């Protein structure tokens, strides 16, 4: 049978989009999902006619892969990652590679690297940034873990990653053990600060009743040719185009863990991080009182994909 270049477990939207991205770059991909009906749905839908092999068991999945096997987990961080690792272990051979592409805490990636290396296997814990759209069209990828795994995953990761203007991929090896998820953690902490600054600025403009500013128009003007242009500003413009008052958005802003971990790490390392810390605190404030800036933060976060805006709290 023809074997796949890489396999991916976990067919939520991020997983599906990464698979489609890999396939579009010439790779054959095997897929598995704990709920097997999801595999059937994907293969008969978005993956129809593509070099994507649907499998209905872990055993079939591992048999379908070229060696050394490269298996990417796109499942919920924490126990589900460890559970899948334990299911895979009896089916793997020396030198095979397990990749965790979720938002795991970096100490878990350090532990998993040491655990798998002790069994003759290799582990990569990688941050993936860019949301659902990035997963499909080109994310930023931050891999770390077992150094010898890099040569095997590099061609795939750098092919699917976003590219800068000169073609350089937004992906390179960042370090050993939990380095990949550590870098992704800090990336998300910085993101908290950027989002908070945008939200506060637009709240100030909305409050200046004298000028009756068209906030969508302002966002569009800023999107090009200014020093604060970014993908986040694009998302703001999209949200304000639908409704300048964000009337259907509840200003309740969740945090998925990375911001807290970044603040805790800053404290542990005696590094002052007041902007990231205050951005996290403002998300906690949003659970107690509502403001336009909280609404804008919630609207931003909702567009990342997979993050629910809670309208009933």
Broad structural category: alpha/beta
Helix fraction, binned, reads 40-55%
Mind telling me the C-alpha Rg? 21 Å
- Could you give the order of strands across the largest sheet? 3-2-1-4-5-6-7-8
What is the residue-mean pLDDT, rounded to a whole number?
A: 94
Low-pLDDT windows of residues: none
Largest sheet: number of strands, sense, barrel closure: 8 strands, mixed
Number of strands: 8
Order of helices and strands: EHEHEHEHEHEHEHEHHHHHH
Sheet-strand content, in percent, reads 5-15%
The shape is globular
Tell me the number of helical segments per DSSP (H or I, 4 or more residues long): 13
Distance between the termini: 53 Å
Describe the structure.
- It is built from 13 helices and eight strands.
- α1 packs parallel to α6, α8 (179-207) crosses α12 (274-285) and α8 crosses α13.
- It is α/β, with parallel strands linked by helices and 313 residues long.
- It has helices at 13-24, 36-44, 58-63, 79-88, 106-117, 131-137, 150-160, 179-207, 215-222, 231-242, 258-268, 274-285, 292-302, and strands at residues 6-9, 29-32, 52-54, 70-73, 97-100, 122-129, 140-145, 175-176.
- Helix content is 48%, strand content 11%.
